[in-house]
Specification:
This protein is an alpha/beta fold. Helices cover 38% and strands 16% of the residues. It has 14 helices and 15 strands. It has a seven-stranded mixed β-sheet with strand order 4-10-9-8-7-5-6, sandwiched between helices. A four-stranded mixed β-sheet has the order 1-2-3-13. Strands 11-12-15-14 form a four-stranded antiparallel β-sheet. A hairpin with a 2-residue loop joins strand 1 and strand 2. The radius of gyration is 21 Å and the shape is globular. The relative contact order is 0.16.
């Protein structure tokens, strides 16, 4: 009997005992292609020798020091690297995970307004079908109904606007630009409804992750959103916990949208799963407001700027740059989307293949011509996961794609080190699993 409290308390998952490159191994000797990097984390795959050596080297020197007493070399170097490649952001702060870093982004946005004499700006706006974390604060701004679930009574007022979800929501005959302007107008209406002097920030995933399945914004969307925020003194917080750190083929996903947020969150792929670490980056005016005001960032946690985690993340990010892996992400991502589109051209239950880089969503439907979703009791995620495991493939299927209840999709997010042959193997196994699900149900 296990003493570990698992998410599903009625079942114990299989036991992983090792990994190498893009593969994971279980204790029964089975080998799986990790085509989802766990939950879009293991961007350099498993047992990467350069990263493992960096962990050993740092552990021999300094594993932990309290950030209130000392700074440390790895944190300083990692901040420099992240800032240098960022869209005009100037300072970074490191914590352990995505939920807590987004929580800090919210706190920092509010502190910015307090420091600039606008303490009434305490309301946050986000989007339906968004997910920003599992703390009460981040869950309160998340539009993921499944994850809010029983905690909804504990959450504060929620202000949500439409997501940028072109596959389902763009109107017939509407251009991308027109669609983006329509969504920005909805945000502006919401700000005016609440009162511009009450709104602290608009929070959005640059590319929507697990809730809807690698949904990218249309061209021009974030430029319109940025303009609305600027008109009303509202900060723009971009959540790239899942989509950032090279996953889309750029260090930051927002680089492709030519937009600079005021505050940005990254995590997951920052240290590629070799250590738990996340980061908040802020624009110069945010930093200056705090420096010129109280001078104190109102946050204190045990593992701030953790030396071992920062050293690991630094080696991961250097490896991505020095091995030219961003180019590989773009090439292999294009190959994966192209091959999935080709293979599923005649599959009536595959409605959309989308994403950027090696961050790809496949939305499944009852009828691709009408986009009618599968019945909610079909149980697609469990069926697909089981069939994929039989094929030796790890995937990330989810339900509730459309509105938190209806719709299903699968995320594919293989490691940045994958080859052309690896991509072909992923497509072959994934197609076999999808076909098996619907063959069994027919």
């Amino acid at each position: 009997m296990t003493r570990v409290l698992y998410r599903n308390v009625r079942a114990t998952p299989g036991t992983a005992v090792g990994g190498d490159g893009i593969h994971l191994f279980d204790r029964d000797g089975r080998r799986y292609i990790d085509a989802c990097c766990g939950v879009v984390v293991s961007s350099l795959g498993h047992n990467h020798p350069r990263v493992v050596e960096a962990i050993k080297r740092q552990a021999d020197q300094l594993a932990y020091v309290h950030a209130g007493a000392f700074t440390n070399g790895p944190a300083e170097e990692l901040a420099e690297l992240l800032v240098e490649r960022s869209p005009g952001l100037t300072h970074a702060y490191f914590l352990s995970g995505g939920s807590e870093i987004v929580e800090l982004c919210l706190k920092t946005a509010y502190q910015y307004h307090v420091e600039t004499g606008q303490p009434g700006r305490r309301t946050f706006i986000s989007r339906r079908q968004s997910y920003h974390g599992s703390t009460l604060g981040t869950l309160a701004i998340s539009g993921n109904l499944q994850r809010r679930d029983i905690f909804d009574p504990l959450l504060g007022p929620t202000h949500l606007v439409a997501p940028c979800y072109a596959y389902r929501d763009k109107r017939e005959g509407e251009s991308d630009r027109e669609y983006g302007r329509r969504l920005a107008a909805e945000l502006e209406e919401k700000i005016l409804e609440i009162g511009p002097d009450q709104v602290a920030a608009f929070v959005a995933e640059t590319v929507v992750g697990s809730t809807s399945g690698a949904v990218p914004p249309v061209e021009g969307y974030f430029a319109e959103i940025r303009a609305v925020c600027d008109r009303h003194g509202v900060l723009l917080i971009l959540d790239e916990v899942m989509a950032g750190m090279g996953r889309t083929g750029h260090h930051y996903a927002c680089a492709e949208d030519d937009v600079r947020p005021d505050i940005l969150a990254v995590g997951k792929g920052l240290a590629a799963g070799y250590q738990p670490i996340s980061a908040m980056l802020v624009a110069p005016h945010v930093h200056e407001a705090i420096r010129a005001g109280s001078g104190i960032l109102k946050n204190g946690q045990t593992f701030v700027n953790h030396p071992l985690a920062c050293a690991t993340a630094l080696e991961v990010q250097r490896t991505i740059v020095e091995d030219g892996l961003l180019g590989n992400v773009r090439q292999r991502g294009h190959q994966l989307r192209t091959r999935l589109t080709e293979v599923f051209a005649e599959q009536p239950h595959v409605g959309d293949v989308r994403g950027r880089g090696l961050f790809i969503g496949v939305e499944v439907v009852e009828d691709r011509s009408t986009k009618e979703p599968l019945a909610t009791d079909f149980g697609f995620p469990a069926r697909l996961r089981a069939e994929a495991l039989r094929e030796g493939l790890m995937t990330y299927p989810m339900s509730g794609t459309i509105d938190g209840r209806r719709g299903d999709h699968v995320l594919l997010a293989p490691p940045f080190i994958c080859t052309a042959d690896d991509v072909e193997a992923i497509v072959t196994r994934f197609a076999a699993a999808v076909d098996a699900v619907f063959r069994e149900a027919s």
